[in-house]
Design brief:
Layout: E1 2-10, E2 13-19, E3 24-29, H1 35-45, E4 61-69, H2 72-80, E5 89-97, E6 102-106, E7 109-111, H3 113-123, E8 124-127, H4 131-134, H5 138-149, H6 152-177, H7 179-199, H8 205-217, H9 219-235, H10 241-258, H11 263-289, H12 294-314, H13 321-338, H14 341-383, E9 390-401, E10 404-413, E11 421-422, H15 429-444, E12 451-455, H16 463-476, E13 481-485, H17 489-492, E14 497-506, E15 509-516, H18 519-531, H19 537-548
Parallel strand pairs: 3-13, 3-14, 8-12, 12-13
Antiparallel strand pairs: 1-2, 1-4, 4-5, 5-6, 6-7, 9-10, 10-11, 14-15
Helix pairs in contact: 5-14, 6-14, 7-13, 8-12, 9-11, 10-11, 14-15, 18-19
């Protein structure tokens, strides 16, 4: 719930610090005192739009901070965003300077307005004084029903299924329209894939065969060089290197027995002798493997030429031919699948069937929810001086759409004996306001949002109906925190907490002021709301009676 609200230099507010309690809280005051400014400031802290016009004249910036207690959903969101604290509360702050630049913070960490809005939807649900206007829109009616019934995920699944079905239908239609072009492209790809398949270049083959060609082309030189090295090291008729080194090592070894100073020399020469002997073994092995093979050289050169020519034709490097084959094969398969009109039709029918099944389940759930919500709003209308009135949610069958198989339409019969008509055609503004309020109160119970705000949703209501409205809001406040801006004493008298909004002049400036009222002050404010500027003993008595009831 909302714990505190701090407002600095916002519109006509200089500085206000408010603490809120659970239950039902009202804000009252004279017209123009700034009652709704509080809601506007809170909406800004929750990520609403704002510009330089919200900054109090003469001030550098508007600064709004709201502290809320958290619940599980909020804690999970904060953890995901790596924004958390250990106090079971969350602090939302919004700053807008007189140039229109905006800054947002969550628990002191810089955030975006979008993050504030996402978090704010978990904390507060605001029903504005013009909420009934959105209820006149068909889309809003459908969303309200789905939200009330907890069907938003099901509605999203229907939308996803519809999108997949229609996308494939468009693909099939495009193929049927462009069948000739698709066929030509398919033939081109078949020829290219066939040529690469026939050549069958393996990954890494170009490097391997290039090395082999180099070796075969220089086989004579390689043999000659290896044999020359072997001769000089060990096979020369006149003192080969290995023999000389062996003899020298043997001689110095004997002399080191006489003078130990020669021992390091012997130790250095011995590894050299061993390495020369290893070189002899390696050269003999190499000479045994390398041979002149003109036939194989011709074969390798032909393979190199074929690979190189094909690579030039496909405008890739020889090394990339295997990847080119894979890429073109995938394209051919996709085109083959896409150009099989019968397969497309079968897949289209399957996706359509999946959509119809998903949408059908949503329709059944909507029908059940529509009946329950219709009955609940109808019952509430009886308490709101609309005796005999009925509220009906019609589910009108329509062509398959992203939102399902039916249009949701709110119908109202304001009086007994009249036929339900679309809510948009209800003549009386007062009736529309009462129906909107009934819907707002009932649907609010379907959400887990801990704080509900009603901003003059009781406009167009008076008398005994106003008292019923107050009781409805107070009953709602037993489970949620309810904040309400009202001009009705019958509603204000039901509150657990009462704030009075007033305005004053200071050095030629008009400023808004908010005071928490005690019992005595509440009597005076209720009396003012009942009797206007002149408060009499009678209006005070009436005010005490309202509060006592």
């Amino acid at each position: 719930m909302l714990r505190t609200l701090s407002i600095r230099d916002f519109v006509i507010v200089d500085s206000i610090e408010l603490e809120f309690a659970p239950g039902f809280t009202v804000f009252t005051g004279e017209t123009g005192a700034g009652k709704s400014i509080l809601i506007d400031a809170l909406a800004l802290a929750l990520g609403g739009r704002g510009d330089a016009s919200v900054v109090r004249e003469g001030a550098a910036k508007a600064d709004i901070t709201a502290e809320f207690s958290t619940h599980d959903e909020v804690e999970s969101w904060l953890a995901e965003q790596e924004i958390s604290n250990d106090e079971g509360s969350v602090l939302l702050r919004r700053v807008i300077d007189n140039a229109g630049r905006s800054k947002a913070f969550i628990n002191g960490i810089t955030a975006t307005a979008a993050q504030l809005r996402e978090l704010g939807e978990m904390l507060v649900d605001i029903h504005g004084q013009h909420a009934h206007q959105s209820l006149l829109k068909v889309d809003a009616q459908r969303v309200l029903l789905d939200t009330q019934a907890g069907l938003l995920d099901e509605a999203k699944a229907v939308s996803v299924a519809h999108k997949a079905w229609r996308a494939l239908a468009r693909q099939r239609e495009e193929f049927e329209t462009n069948a000739k072009n698709v066929l030509l492209e398919r033939e081109r790809l078949e020829w290219q894939v066939g040529e690469l398949e026939k050549l069958a270049v393996k990954p890494g083959e170009w490097a391997e065969i290039s090395n082999e060609h180099s070796r075969l082309a220089h086989a004579a030189s390689l043999l000659e060089g290896a044999q020359e090295a072997l001769t000089v090291i060990s096979e020369s008729d006149t003192n080969p290197i290995l023999s000389q080194l062996s003899a020298l090592t043997l001689k110095l070894g004997k002399l080191s027995d006489v003078d130990a100073a020669l021992k390091p020399v012997v130790d250095a020469l011995e590894p050299a002798r061993i390495q020369l002997q290893e070189a002899v073994y390696a050269l003999n092995d190499y000479l045994g493997r390398v041979e002149l093979d003109p036939a194989r050289l011709q074969e390798v050169e032909a393979r190199l030429d074929a690979i190189h020519s094909t690579a030039r034709k496909f405008r890739v490097t020889p090394e990339d031919l295997p990847q080119e084959y894979e890429t073109l094969s995938v394209q051919l398969k996709q085109l083959a699948d896409a150009s099989d009109v019968e397969a497309l039709r079968a897949q289209e029918e399957r996706l359509k069937s999946e959509y119809m099944s998903t949408a059908g389940k949503l329709s059944k759930a909507r029908a059940k929810a529509a009946k329950a919500l219709s009955e609940a709003v109808t019952d509430a209308m009886q308490d709101l001086s609309m005796s005999g009135g009925r509220f009906v949610i019609a589910l009108n069958e329509c062509e398959p759409a992203a939102y399902g198989l039916e249009q949701v339409e709110f119908l109202v019969a304001a009086h007994a004996g009249t036929s339900p008509r679309p809510l948009a055609k209800v003549a009386s503004g007062g009736e529309l306001a009462r129906i909107s309020l009934a819907i707002s109160v009932i649907t609010s119970t379907a959400t887990v949002t801990p704080t509900l705000i009603f901003d003059e949703v009781d406009s167009g209501i008076g008398g005994g109906v106003a008292e019923v409205v107050g009781r409805l809001l107070k009953r709602l406040g037993q489970d949620r925190q309810v904040l309400c801006v009202t001009h009705l004493p019958q509603v204000a008298s039901q509150a657990n907490q009462h704030f009075q909004v007033s305005k004053r002049s200071l050095e030629g400036r008009t400023l808004s002021n908010i005071d928490a009222l005690d019992s005595k002050a509440r009597i005076e404010e209720i009396a003012r709301m009942l009797g206007g500027l002149e408060i009499t003993a009678t209006t005070r008595k009436h005010a005490r009676e309202l509060l006592a009831s």
